[in-house]
Design goal:
The chain has one domain: 2-Layer Sandwich (Ribosomal Protein L30, Chain: A), CATH 3.30.1390.20. The chain contains two helices and three strands; from the N terminus they run βαβαβ. The protein is an alpha+beta fold. Strands 2-1-3 form a three-stranded antiparallel β-sheet, with no helix packed on it.
């Protein structure tokens, strides 16, 4: 199965609680931190909700 590389490119300051919780669920805590996850519908949905805060690449 393909993997996704998700990098936080913008700060979560000013974001609502739900967006901050989604970032935490993805494992992102700091700016420019990168995590890898399996390409599943759950992860894709989370990344789409945070499209303005993260950059997603397929590995």
């Amino acid at each position: 199965m393909a993997k996704l590389k998700i990098t936080q490119i913008k700060s979560s300051i000013g974001s609502d609680k739900r967006q901050k919780a989604t970032l935490a669920a993805l494992g992102l805590r700091k700016m420019h931190q990168t995590v890898e996850h399996e390409n599943t519908p759950n992860i894709i949905g989370m990344a789409k909700k945070l499209g303005h805060l993260v950059k997603v690449e397929e590995v």
